[in-house]
Amino acid sequence: MTTSTQPSSQPDIILASTSRYRRELLQRLRLPFNVHRPEVDETPLAGETPAQLAQRLAVAKAQAVSVKHPQALVIGSDQVADLHGQAIGKPGNYDKAFEQLRRMSGQTVIFQTAVSVVCQASAFQQCELVAVKVEFRQLNDAEIDRYLRAEEPYDSAGSAKSEGLGITLLNAIHNDDPTALIGLPLIATARLLRAAGVSLP
């Protein structure tokens, strides 16, 4: 996908993700960019914390695409829900999402969202991690069922979309960047792009 033609004064920008949420977020910066799918094994490593997993995968996604497009600035990102040190990923289906929300009911979950910018040609590589603390309400099974059938958030880490109906499941959100919880922390992304030489806004 190409959103527009990049001015010659700045390098091409590629988002190493097929997530529509990340694509929509990056469009807010009004920069032309392409989208490429990163081929990365997302299996956690033994002993890896959720924060470490998010950072490693964000870098790996950017690197995987950067190898094929060495002149471009490649943005990689990953999000892992952290429940008392245990990684919670995308549920993929109703049953897994139901179990995730049961476990998170009444709990505080840290959503670890990492973003990395990589350019092979200039040897630029930086990564930032943004942690968002989310307090879930006490949820009963009927509430969980109604929510899942209404929103079907099976492609979202932790099974709750705060930008949609998932906000009703929560007591509070504590963060430094509201876009981080959706999947791409734009404050950190803009900071990394400026560090790599991109003019913003």
Shape: elongated
CATH class: Alpha Beta
**Total domains, how many?**
1
CATH fold group: Maf protein
Rg calc = 17 Å
Q: Which secondary-structure class do the elements indicate? A: alpha/beta
- Average the pLDDT over all residues and give the rounded result: 93
Distance between the termini: 22 Å
Question: How many strand elements?
Answer: 7
**Helical run tally:** 5
Level-2 CATH architecture = Alpha-Beta Complex
Note the main sheet.
7 strands, mixed
Spell the H/E element sequence: EHEHEEHEEHEH
**Relative helix content:** 25-40%
Identify low-pLDDT runs. Answer: 1-8
Proportion of strand residues: 15-25%
Pfam families: Maf (PF02545)
Keywords: Cytoplasm, Hydrolase, Nucleotide metabolism
Site (Important for substrate specificity): 21, 79, 163
Subcellular location: Cytoplasm
Summarize the structure.
The protein has helices at residues 20-26, 50-66, 94-104, 141-151, 186-195; strands at 13-15, 34-35, 73-83, 86-88, 108-119, 124-136, 170-174. It has 201 residues and is α/β, with parallel strands linked by helices.
Can you walk me through this structure?
- This protein is of the alpha/beta class.
- It has one domain: Maf protein, CATH 3.90.950.
- Helices cover 28% and strands 24% of the residues.
- It has helices at residues 20-26, 50-66, 94-104, 141-151, 186-195; strands at 13-15, 34-35, 73-83, 86-88, 108-119, 124-136, 170-174.
- Strands 1, 2, 3, 4, 5, 6 and 7 form a seven-stranded mixed sheet that branches.
- A hairpin with a 2-residue loop joins strand 3 and strand 4.
- Helix 3 packs across helix 4 (141-151).
- The longest helix has 17 residues, at 50-66.
- 39% of the residues are buried.
- Mean pLDDT is 93; it is low at 1-8.
